[in-house]
Specification:
Shape: globular
Order of helices and strands: HHHHHHHHHHHHHHHHHHH
Number of strands: 0
Structural class: mainly alpha
Radius of gyration: 24 Å
Number of helices: 19
Strand content: under 5%
Helix content: over 70%
């Protein structure tokens, strides 16, 4: 049990494969496997109760969608002047949080940042799930689902909407493959370790998903090559996807969308909100699955530093955006600034500025708040603020009059709010099912490339007894 998964160090050296750089204690590895595979072996009543609650919310959202299908988009708060509302704002939000998963994982893998190996799988699955949920909103916004066929048959490639469909489809395909590749060795591990403790259908699934993996040097080399190729491919694809999403707005003749930096602005915002989503999911799964020894203060702090860095980047983009538009004050800009800063959207706008951009940076600057709880609190602020930012871009931007008429007000109807709640329930449902089918930690990568953090177990045990841990700062 003191060897890496599938290959012993001497066999690796004789086969020309680089030996694992870490000497992993056998008891630590056995504890990691036991803890990571435990959710796959059994299920308690609390899990079923949670799934039932999510299905109830999802069912209510489906009911609301049937009302929209039956009566048309008139049941929403959208009208001809504000034709994009909650649906498109949520679409941009979900596509945004999908970016930090695969993109961040790929960048950190390329740079060989080993501290993130405990959370890469969670990040990569956030990408796939967020893309699947976010891609539903444009179809919901169409009103009639049969219009999808019109896009496929009569869509014009000059339209940014068509670019968006192609980009999201490509990104979803690549992200799914990128998620699956590092899962193969862990599928094989689950196949070999679980035995009769898991249901028969689950054991059959692991056998099929492992595709005959036995950890041979040839298989390991092929896996590493495939992951390297996907890493290099997925980074430009991820950047291009949210750039194309931003072009849907930037290439629309609206005063509030009239900017050339929307591409970089949207990509930075996507990574910013995506990091926050990873932190929140990481905190929840760490607590529920008792993974404190493997997801430590290190991961939270480093992700918190990244959030703080992107809060400064987002602040720069906002200052640049409002300073340039405010200096020229073209027609429509005074109305747009007034509605954001002192008008009906003022409360949302200033929460976005101070709560979404200022608070996370301050939390990470102050040593007393630079804790796991502080990073999670900052992530919550970021997620709320970035959804609000998308809402302001869509709704406040479309509210600026194109002609000398009174501006139209918009507020989401119960149908839109119910469908949004159903979308979040679907997101949580897919994450919950994933946690019961797959190891949420990439066991083989943590064993081979990272190993235990010095003091991590003592820190975990000390926190359980109510005492501060011995590991006062990240080990790496």
């Amino acid at each position: 049990m003191d060897t890496v998964i599938g290959v012993r160090p001497r066999e690796a050296e004789s086969a020309g494969v680089e030996s694992p750089p870490l000497a992993v204690p056998p008891e630590w590895r056995a504890r990691l496997e036991r803890r990571a595979l435990a959710p796959l072996a059994g299920t308690g009543w609390r899990y079923y109760a949670w799934i039932g609650a999510l299905l109830a919310v999802l069912g209510w959202g489906i009911f609301a969608y049937t009302r929209q299908l039956d009566e048309g988009l008139i049941v929403t708060g959208m009208r001809d002047r504000i034709s994009w509302g909650l649906y498109i704002a949520s679409f941009v939000f979900f596509i945004g949080i999908s970016h930090a998963g695969t993109l961040l994982s790929a960048i950190l893998r390329v740079t060989r940042a080993r501290w993130q190996l405990s959370v890469t799988r969670m990040a990569e699955f956030i990408t796939v799930v967020a893309l699947m949920v976010g891609a539903l909103f444009p179809f919901i916004d169409m009103g009639r689902p049969d219009r999808i066929l019109n896009i496929l048959e009569y869509g014009r490639w000059q339209s940014p909407l068509m670019w968006d469909i192609l980009a999201i489809t490509t990104y979803l395909t690549g992200s799914t493959l990128y998620l699956y590749l590092p899962l193969v060795p862990d599928f094989a591990l689950a196949r070999d370790r679980l035995g009769p403790t898991a249901p028969r259908w689950k054991r059959a699934f692991f056998r099929a998903a492992a595709v005959g993996w036995n950890g041979s040097p040839a298989q390991r080399r092929a896996l590493e090559r495939a992951m390297t190729v996907m890493m290099l491919v997925i980074i430009p694809v991820a950047v291009s996807v949210h750039t194309v999403v931003s072009w849907i707005f930037a290439m629309t003749l609206r005063v509030a969308f009239n900017t050339s930096i929307f591409g970089a602005f949207f990509v930075a915002g996507a990574i910013y909100s995506g990091i926050a989503a990873i932190v929140l999911l990481m905190a929840v799964l760490r607590k529920l699955l008792r993974l404190e020894e493997y997801i430590t203060r290190t991961q939270f702090l480093y992700l918190g530093y990244m959030m703080a860095a992107f809060s400064l980047i987002m602040t720069y983009f906002n200052v640049s955006e409002y300073a340039v538009h405010g200096y020229k004050m073209e027609a429509g800009v005074p109305f747009h600034f007034e509605q954001l800063m002192v008008g009906p959207f003022a409360a949302l706008f200033w929460f976005y500025i101070f709560g979404g951009l200022g608070a996370p940076a301050i939390i990470m600057l102050v040593r007393r708040t630079r804790t796991i709880a502080g990073v999670v609190c900052a992530a919550v602020f970021v997620l709320l603020a970035m959804w609000i930012e998308r809402y302001l871009i869509v709704v406040a931007g479309l509210r600026v009059p194109l002609e000398p008429y009174a501006p139209r007000d918009y507020f989401p109807s119960w149908v839109e709010l119910s469908i949004l709640a159903g979308a979040f329930a679907l997101f949580a449902l897919l994450i919950s099912v994933f946690a019961k089918l797959f190891p949420v930690i990439s066991i083989w990568e943590v064993v081979e490339h990272r190993g235990p953090e010095p003091g991590a177990r003592a820190e975990n045990e000390g926190s359980r007894r109510g005492r501060p841990g011995v590991a006062g700062r990240p080990a790496r």
